[in-house]
Design a protein that fits this description.
By secondary structure, the protein is mainly β. The chain is about 0% helix and about 25% strand. The protein has no helices and 3 strands. Strands 2-1-3 form a 3-stranded antiparallel beta sheet, with no helix packed on it.
């Protein structure tokens, strides 16, 4: 399965600019939760960060819930300066 994560940055909380698109590849048939640490450097002072995570869509034919919409769970987002 392929999930895209897009990071946006803003200094004013209104005008956002794409910072980075991350497309990690996970084992699609893994039955356990997938935990990923994703890193990027803003390269400048940023006050606001927006994360857009795009889920897979309909589950493939081999999945126990084939044809159903996939789910995307986000537990924590850690921002360090």
């Amino acid at each position: 399965l392929e999930f895209r994560r897009v990071l946006f940055r803003s200094k004013d909380g209104v005008n956002y600019h794409a910072l980075k698109t991350i497309t990690p590849v996970e084992d699609a048939k893994a039955e356990e939760a997938i935990v990923k640490d994703l890193y990027t450097d803003c390269g400048e002072e940023v006050r606001f960060i927006r994360v857009k995570a795009v889920r897979y869509g309909a589950l493939p034919s081999w999945h126990i819930s084939a044809g159903e919409e996939s789910w995307l769970f986000v537990d924590e987002i850690l921002i360090e300066q």
